[in-house]
Design goal:
There is one protein chain. With 321 residues, this protein is an alpha/beta fold. The strands form two sheets. The protein has a nine-stranded mixed beta sheet with strand order 5-4-1-8-9-10-11-12-13, sandwiched between helices. A four-stranded mixed beta sheet has the order 3-2-6-7. Helix 1 packs across helix 8, helix 8 runs antiparallel to helix 9 and helix 9 crosses helix 10. The radius of gyration is 18 Å and the shape is globular.
């Protein structure tokens, strides 16, 4: 049975590109942060599964096929003709920052009910991973909270990605309240620097880290793009440097990072309380290499590297100072 179960959204990303002729096209790829994490970990040899809901439409079939092709267990993926599959159109603004337009009205992923969650998958996993997009609407919000509570009660590691997508929330205040509401159950969290500030309502990194540790979070991964990442636990705070690559598209790089990091935890065979900072720094170095490689191609899942590529970069690649 799967060792890592992701619950939440799987959607279709349409990424904008401009042809030499000047024509604009949108390339279709499977996406959704929890699904990306499951696929990345699967590609690295860790058994994974996905719990969620898609529409009974062309897009839903496509997404299920992609998960299956990448050896992600889809026993928990529901296809429902009453809803549509979420679509996201991705572009970049003048500053090079990604912008999203979501088509999520009557969306299947936001209408996952707790009664539809296949708890046997949670029973048999080691890590339950989820993201904050489940918290934007009911009934998926209740499905997320109750699933996490169930997993916690059954001794599972809880992994959380408070993925900030401003367009999907009524306000930043609503987002902050919802994203904070689950922290007391979380063991591992992955955030960007911006998400850390939103999640903790603090612009000071040390203060933010202290707040998360105060909730009971055991491992904090702060991704910093080309600067690498920061790992924080009660043992201390360490910076792990990045690898130099020619960046083409960072879409999904953070998910690739986290899928690799969680995979390393599972492969270690250790419980969280047995992991030393040296272990976590090694996992983060591996994850940094994975994230760097995933940014040299377009698309989230198509850009995901193999383990041989990751190990090759670690052995031969140059680290950014």
């Amino acid at each position: 049975m799967p060792e890592i179960i992701s619950i939440g959204e799987v959607l279709v990303d349409f990424t904008k590109s401009t042809l030499d002729s000047g024509d604009i096209i949108y390339k279709q790829n499977a996406g959704g942060a929890p699904a990306n994490v499951a696929v990345m970990a699967s590609k690295l040899g860790t058994s994974t599964g996905f719990i969620g809901k898609v529409g009974r439409d062309t897009f839903g079939k496509y997404l299920k096929d992609v998960l299956k092709e990448n050896k992600v267990n889809t026993d928990g993926l529901i296809t429902d003709s009453g809803y549509t599959t979420t679509l996201a159109f991705v572009d970049k603004n003048e500053d090079g920052k990604r912008e999203y337009v979501f088509y999520r009205n009557n969306a299947a992923d936001a209408n996952l009910k707790y009664s539809e969650v296949k708890k046997k998958l949670i029973d048999d996993c080691k890590i339950l991973h989820f993201g904050s997009l489940m918290l934007t609407h009911e009934p998926s919000k209740s499905a997320a909270i109750l699933s996490v509570e169930y997993a916690k009660q059954n001794g599972k590691i809880i992994s959380y990605d408070p993925n900030w997508r401003e367009q999907l929330w009524n306000s930043k205040e609503d987002a902050m309240k919802a994203m904070q509401s689950v922290l007391k159950m979380v063991d591992i969290v992955k955030v960007s620097e911006e998400e850390l500030q939103i999640l903790t309502d603090s612009g000071n990194m040390i203060t933010s880290i202290a707040k998360l540790l105060g909730y009971g979070v055991k491992i904090i991964c702060i991704t910093q793009g080309a600067k690498g990442c920061i790992i924080a636990t009660k043992q201390g705070i360490e910076s792990v440097r990045a690898f130099k690559t020619e960046t083409i598209d960072t879409l999904g790089a953070g998910d690739s990072f986290f899928g690799a990091f969680l995979s390393q935890i599972v492969k270690s065979g250790k419980e969280l309380n047995e992991l030393e900072m040296a272990d976590l720094k090694g996992f983060a170095l591996y994850a940094n290499a994975c994230g760097a490689l995933s940014s040299i191609k377009s698309g989230a899942i198509p850009a995901m590297p193999t383990e041989d590529e990751i190990l090759g970069l670690i052995k031969n690649g140059k680290m950014l100072l």
